Amino acid sequence: MESAHDEPFADNQTQEIEKTLLLAKLKPEDLLPLTQVVYFASEELHHNNYKLLQIDNCLLETFNEQGVVYVKGEDNENAVLCTDTATYDLLETETSNALLLVESLHFRDSVTDSAPKATSKVTVKGVFYDYLEVTPTKPNLQRLHELLDKRPYKGPEYERDGDEHDLYTYSELLNRIQASRNELDAALEAMRIVKVNDKIRILDFEYHSRVLSYMLKLIEENSWNFNEVDYDQTVSTLSDLIPEEIICSLFELYTEKSKREFCSIMLESLIYKNFWKHGWSWYQMECAPKQRCYTDLL
Fold first, then answer.
1. 227: burial class by Cβ within 10 Å (0-12, 13-18, 19+)?
2. How many CB atoms lie within 10 A of CB 294?
3. Phi and psi of 250, rounded to 5°?
4. Is 88 helix (H, G, I), strand (E, B) or coil?
5. Is the Cα torsion angle 192, 194, 200, 201 positive or negative in sign?
6. How far apart are CA 170 and CA 195, in angstroms?
């Protein structure tokens, strides 16, 4: 098997190779017909233009399927490697043996025993004494809380007071947070975020409570059952008080689709559990229907 770098044997090359094999106590007939001659490039071999990365089969499949992974980290953070589903620590590991970065190297499975004898030039482009090793790790979500806590959404009347640089789109968070896409999505869902003007926000607790109280009072005023909450009427009635995207977000959080058209089922147990963490006494006095006992919903 020949390549663009393969060359026929010259007499002096043959003699030199045979002498080397004799010293190594090897027989030419026991070796593959391709001889690869290693040359070192004339340029600087010890440079920082490349880093060697050791990966497992799972990461290799990700490279082959997606063609891209992400390295994330601020100046004060250790770098991590992220795929769409997992996060890995990047650890620099030293080795006592030199690792060579080569060009046009033939591996065993690319050479056949029946191929004619030939030589191939292999050029060493770099010499390394360390490499990057990856180990699975948990996502670093502390940074996510820090960024979103800078400007919780308190209502449209407060939006002029803040700095726009403290607001982030989903793409910006994905680039900055040391987590995979799936891990970030799960964290945002657990944080009960809302999207305002394409920015990811958390709701201020007092504002969250006020909006929810409006919704519950509207249900009471219209004598709706909790499994027959009219979505369209709720939005149209409260839109003068609350931005529509906030109402829609809380509907997604606290309701699920009803079998009846245009109606939703209010998830009372979810309301109870959320406000138990922050202010159960407020919810018990202001929002919970008096005739219903919620202790069995825990």
1. middle
2. 17
3. -70, -30
4. strand
5. negative
6. 9
Nearest-angstrom CA–CA distance, 194 and 207 = 13
Which residue in 161, 148, 152, 249 sits closest to 204, CA to CA?
152
Q: Which amino acid is located at 203 in the chain?
A: L
HEC assignment per residue over 208-263: HHHHHHHHHHHHHHCCCCCCCEEHHHHHHHHCCCCCHHHHHHHHHHHEEECCCCCE
pTM for this model (two decimals):
0.72
* Residue closest to 179 by CA, chosen among 89, 90, 86, 91: 86
- Outline where the chain has alpha helix (H): 11-23, 57-66, 142-149, 170-176, 181-190, 205-221, 231-238, 244-254, 268-286
The span from the first CA to the last CA of the chain, in angstroms, equals: 72
Q: How confident is the model at residue 286 (pLDDT cuts 50, 70, 90)?
A: very low
Q: What's the average model confidence in pLDDT over 188-214?
A: 90
Round to whole Å and give the CA distance between 157 and 234: 21
Look at residues 136, 63, 125 and name the one whose alpha carbon lies nearest to residue 100: 125
Q: In this structure, what token pair is assigned to residue 50?
A: 């490349």
Q: Which amino acid is it at 33?
A: P
Q: How many residues in total does the chain contain?
A: 298
Give the best-scoring range by mean pLDDT among 133-142, 216-225, 287-296. 133-142
**Residue for token pair 């006020």:** 210
Structure tokens at 43: 């340029």
